[in-house]
Amino acid sequence: MALVITDPKFMEYILSSTKIISKAFQYDFFHEWLGTGLLTSTGIKWRKRRKMLTPSFHFSILENFMDVFEKVGDIFIERLWEEVGKPSVDIYPLVSLCTLDIICEASMGISINAINDGDSEYVRSVKQMCQIPVDRTFDFTAPFQPWIHPITPNYFKQKRAIKVLHEHTDRVIDERIKNPINISDEDKDSVGMKKRLAFLDLLLTATIDGKPLSRMDIREEVDTFMFEGHDTTSAAIAFAMFSLAENRGIQQKVLEEQISIFGEKKNRKTTTTDLQDMKYLELVIKETLRLYPSVPWVGRKFPEDIEWEGTLYPKDMNLMLYIFGTQRDARYFPEPLKFRPERFLDTEIPNPFAYVPFSAGPRNCIGQRFAMMEMKSTISKIVRNFELLPATPKHELQLAPEVILVSKNGIRISLNRRK
Ligand code: HEM
């Protein structure tokens, strides 16, 4: 049982609180894979980890990932050429492999080449571990899962997937410990290329209370980035592509902005200044995350009895803050189902907590800047190379607010080569 909350004032009270930081029971289903990394931990452990990880998301560090966005983005564009001219393409699985490649390289510093090898054991295991906890959360047996799970086929599938994932992360960590990267620009590999900095390198040098992190601590955080930093951005990019295909006038404005930035050299390398100049694209991404928030709800638990506006709520009550519902409420967003990026310019949102795609307060998304850079970089490349058109026959999304917002029948569009 959970209390579903859509009132922005109540959301503000909960999200701003430094006491209501424990997650709802649904997050427990991710513990076997993620342990108690930043997303799933609470109390002192979470506070110390958050403090330790915050500098890793500083702009000066994120700049290092521009090369990753560029390299993987180019491979993705090559892959998309194969889809040109088809009347209907489900872009979600393709985008998802692209964002998996990006987060893997950013967090571990290695390439798994998911775009061209989407059926590898590692990629399959990530996909399974993003799905099995969701199946468990939404199964009517959810409260009894600790007892029922061990006798279901999912238990054995999950055990195998987790073994693959943990062994993979451990191998990469061991390799990096043996061959550390000096976090200086001078560090070159054997062929003289600049070595790529990864979040893992920062974790290897980080300390908490003066002590370095254990291998297990590091694995928890790397795996958390792999989970939280992959399906979230892929959903957003795929829904943005769908929205641009369905709203050609808006797509034209995005294209004009891209032309004003890149001119004739439409495939030149993107810089951080270019990303900052993509103001209209940023509005498009904001509007995409309003209508299609990648994380449609977040769960919390009351740490003690709480009284709010005359009602007493008991300790340990599970809360579901329903971002999807609030962001589609006409009281805060007139004509809520209309895709209108300009609303972020001219509408005063009555309560900022009515728009919280990255959550808010102390447990907001630590990766939001990284995500914004990745989304801008990728969508910019797509729009410069392809005209996005509605699928034939017309595609009606079947949205389902699972742990990540999904469309049950895919996200279908059609692609044309842009001259
Ligand atoms: C469009 C992309 C993204 C969206 C919409 C998004 C959204 C969110 C939301 C709503 C939360 C709060 C979850 C909760 O309270 O249960 C969250 C937390 C988190 N996100 Fe993101 N996220 C995105 C991308 C990323 C990326 C790329 C990373 C990593 C590189 C990341 C890492 C995290 C982590 C580690 C947390 C837990 C923070 C904490 O509890 O202190 N996210 N995200």
Automatic annotation (TrEMBL):
Cofactor field: heme
A single MF term (Gene Ontology): heme binding
Classification via Pfam families: p450
CDD domains reported in the protein's UniProt record: CYP4 (cd20628)
Chain positions recorded as heme binding sites: 365
This protein's UniProt keywords: Heme, Iron, Metal-binding, Monooxygenase, Oxidoreductase
PROSITE patterns per UniProt: CYTOCHROME_P450
UniProt-listed InterPro entries: Cyt_P450 (IPR001128), Cyt_P450_CS (IPR017972), Cyt_P450_E_grp-I (IPR002401), Cyt_P450_sf (IPR036396), Cytochrome_P450_Monoox (IPR050196)
Family, similarity comment: Belongs to the cytochrome P450 family.
Name of this protein: Cytochrome P450
Highest classification ranks of the organism: Eukaryota, Metazoa, Ecdysozoa, Arthropoda, Hexapoda
